[in-house]
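Predict fold of DUF4956 domain-containing protein; 228 aa.
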Amino acid sequence: MLDSLFNETLTSTTFSFSSAIMTIMIAIVLGGLISVTYMKTNPNGFSQNFTLTMIILPVIVAMIILLIGNNIARAFSLAGAFSIIRFRSAPGDPRDIAYVLFTMAAGLACGVGMLGYAVLFTVILCLLMILLSRFNFAANKRTYKLLKVTIPENLVYEEAFTEVFARFGVGYELKKIRTAELGSLYELVYNVTLNDSINQKAFLDAIRCRNGNLDLSLTLVPGVNTDN
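Predicted 3D structure, encoded as tokens:
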């Protein structure tokens, strides 16, 4: 029975109105399932616009495939129409990009009539994503941050915080030094590596005791995966 279900969808090339409606409804359901999976597996929060897009995207792709069918001229016409659209945005999180490709693949499978495979692959991939998120697969146990510290000119910057870094087990690399306030102050920029067990408040308090309670900041390093 399962073989007949999948084989029928593979050989179906002509869509009636009822089959087109069924295809669109299944695309909506699969988009909703993918969107819910994304919300459940994203620990850092999510955008409502992005989750709604994941519901709509499979439907759009399925509709485009339905409109094209086997008509080559129509395919070139749609390609020319969509080439007018320009999307300009900064590269997103790799996980978000994967979900976008996921929803497009589900819509494509629905559009070509492979409804059984679309449902099967969507369910399998959603379960896989939930399992990977539940077991915290490939989680990074160390956090990479940028430490900016201002020190007075009478403090030797080469060894100013060596003892503090060693006490808290913090890996560090001095990346930049610049003067401020007409040379009366130095600003040091470190790349630091922190373990989960480090008390960041106690670490910053120790830095403040050394630099005379001058300005300091601790921020995430851009472009480095810090998911825990």
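The two ends are 44 Å apart (CA to CA).
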